[in-house]
Amino acid sequence: MNKQSGIHYLREHREAASTRPVPAEVARIRDTVVAGLGDLLQGAFDAVDDSLFELANNARSNNEQNRYFEAMREIRIKRKGVERHFQNTVAQFFANPPHAGQLPSTEASPQASADTLSLVGNDDLEEQVAFNAMTTKAKAHFQGPLLQLQARFTEIYPDATEQEPVNPMAPEHLCSAFTEAIQALDIQIRERLILLKQFDRYVISNLGMLLDEANRILIQAGVIPNFRYHGKKSQSQK
């Protein structure tokens, strides 16, 4: 997937975050989320390994079988590095969370898609479609907890406003972090799609428990304990 602009943004964003301190409740959420996502990602990678092994066993030629075994080897060798990269990126989102819409969008307008379709490789397009489907489904499925969490995080971070809310746990940020992390893998599109499929199945689809825990921690800290779909008040209103 050609997401170089997004990857460059993520790297610059991490550098800008540096060692910015975060409130105690945010640090607690960060540690819980990073550890939880790490556990979920273990399951995703195990499932990828199983899928590739099954494909290799059912391959119709030696070349096809070797391709899957080589992909398995590549992922096994670099797996820990990918996991570490993903978790570090997620942790930095809590130090300096992107504003909503600040990450380059993977969703193009219909006109833009038509105009640029010939410039996008089939592999990139397939991965982009998978990425969009994953994030769109997650935002719809977890809409309630995500809205609450965005309001609470926006209340905490001084640079956030109702017009420019933040949520370091937004699905699009987590998916972008994973997409960046797997750039290190020298594998073909079918294997990349398997990775995204299992990331969706084992990580994104199980975000609910982490979103609920994050909301619980912030409620206990007194951050918008009674959520009523309102944003951060201006200083003059406080």
From TrEMBL:
Name recorded for this polypeptide: DUF1631 domain-containing protein
